[in-house]
Amino acid sequence: MILMAGFSPTSAAQAVTTVRQFAYVSNLDADSVSVIDTADETVVATVPVGDRPNGIAALPDGSRVYAINFGSDDVSVISTATNTVIGTVDAGTRPADATATPDGRFLYVADSGSDTVTVIDTATDAVVDTVAAGDGPVEVAFTPDGRYAYVTDFFAGLAGTVSVIDTATRITVATIPVGAYPSGITITPDGRYVYSTNFGTTTVSVISTTSNSVVDTVTVGAAPADAVVGPDGSRVYVADMFSDAVSVISTSSNTVVDTIPLSGPAPVDSGPNGLAITPDGSRVYVADTFADTTSMISTAVGTVADTGDVGSRPTDVDIARMETGGPSAPSSTPARQESGGVVSSENENLTGMVATTGDAGVRQKVRDVHTFVQQVKKRHLDHRAPTRPPKVRRLRLTTRTPS
Hints:
YVTN_b-propeller_repeat; globular; Methylamine Dehydrogenase, Chain H; WD40/YVTN_repeat-like_dom_sf; YncE family protein; 4-stranded antiparallel sheet; Haem_d1_sf
């Protein structure tokens, strides 16, 4: 869909400003990023990046997208004008995800293996600071004024925490207890509340930014991996990975007002993971990690309107909004693409634990998860390189196991 941002008169005719939107999807097992034209929901480019891109972050102006490479401890800088990698920036150990500041000046990278947040100056794509964070940081969200960064500390485990960084001093100023294995995080447009998905439970913690304390807890589906808030602040969308659904939370009541099922190609589950919402709030894009697809939800009707194939094990998605045209196909050869398949019980060793469930299949996943968590935690403590991302939103789903 071509969005007409507006018209301004000229001496000869009216000049049209065209705005296009593209969804960028990190494909963990394909070492690539898929580019989806949201006008017709087709993949228009595949960009080779670093080893195991686990997170994706677009700048507010849409000029660049950053692929967070968990396996190679770096960040690939993608020009959206050409859909090619124009630079690589070193990060900390096992970077899991990143978010740009509201003004686009800096990129904060959550380094899950080194308990740090790497700060990159987007003007130069150079590291300008490294901030001590909590235990296994995996995702970052900023207050609208950019004053504070809230970071989920996944490896805090059952005693999950969210760290608060003062962006002026780049010092952690608060640590907030939340649920087990906090993963995704989002902040309402008015800056009043933070929603943290507790992947090791079936809950989302609601944090007041005034008191930096949990003021409510919302029960959602199994293994909530990520969350995104709509532009008007009325709804929060949560990816329930083990329930193969997206829960919709009303922020006025902090209750689930809708549950949107997602289906993978039988007999594969969808495994909804990373989320992104379009600036107008009309669509939510979901990275379906188990199914190697991306689903597009129409928020107006609360159903999946389209599903398309992407690369192997998509883990995250972000929207790049660009004026006057859009990206072109890459000049380089696309990275390898792996076909989807049945996710075996071995491959369902996802990080986290679901607290209680009556579903036998989910209980088996929980048992597998518990074993894997212990393995990854051991690796994390001695800072050796785990072979899978330590957070579910950006999680590796292959038969490899930590050594």
